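Worked example

This section walks through a single chain of length 322. The input is the sequence exactly as stored; nothing has been trimmed or padded.
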Amino acid sequence: MLRVTDSRANDNGVSPFIELERETWSRLAHSIEQPLNMDDLDRLSGLGEQLSLAEIREVYLPLSRLLYLYVQGAGHLHRVTSTFLGEATQRTPFVIGVGGSVAVGKSTTARVLRELLRRWPDTPDVQLVTTDGFLYPNEELERRGIMHRKGFPESYDRRALLRFVAAVKSGAEEVRAPMYSHLTYNILDDEEVVVRKPDVLIVEGLNVLQPARIRTNGTAGLALSDFFDFSLYVDARTQDIEEWYVKRFMKLRSGAFADPASYFHRYSTLTDEEARATALDIWRRINEPNLRENVLPTRGRAQLVLSKDADHSIRRMLLRKI
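Given that input, the structure is written out below as tokens.
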């Protein structure tokens, strides 16, 4: 049954969101065939988060259909605008923002959406960019004394990120972005991400839904989300995300941390008890405060909220009314 959520209703009992349970949402895919197999899921799953064919069928296929309908709607609006202007204007990429906490699974969501949207007619070229590439280099973070706040809004070159997405949305032939390495935990000096007029661009990151900054004179600038055609937020209870973060950290000891080139190689030899204590300390000093102060407050700005249970499965969707 389709129902309006009460969780965000105002005093009159009216909410800007429609709440759908997974069973209802899954029927919205209609007769779309399952395009992915188990090999695809292994490739797309994040560390500590195992996708299932049921999750693809019941959650992501309906979502890909909704997004494809939005892309088609944007195309219709473009044609109407061109008719109004009396001239043929160039259609620009459809931009999707994906936000949420560290360890909540937003990167997996972005990868799955890229894979599924590529299968729809008229959107074969779907590209994905993460905002990690717009973090200031570690040397600059050290110079500013904010290395301990990496991932907080002030640790990003927000002007460069805005210029990048604005250029994509303006229809530029080619736009370049810095590339980030999770191995070295820093920006790569000699590599870039190149975006060349995709049909759809997915922008994934912690702070993609941040509101515009207020200038010293009281005026507001542009927000990154001003350039989004659709935005979604991957949500879960904070205590669940904490546990996912800890489990991921412990698995990384024998994975990426084991590489001598890894910035976090020093953690690879920790015992289980030491690793859990270290992960909890990092989470509670850095990631949880950032979630509470900066990331979670942007949830209501998304057009769609995907809510997860403790087992990482998406159980509820909040879709903004139009």
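What to look for: The longest strand covers residues 186-195.
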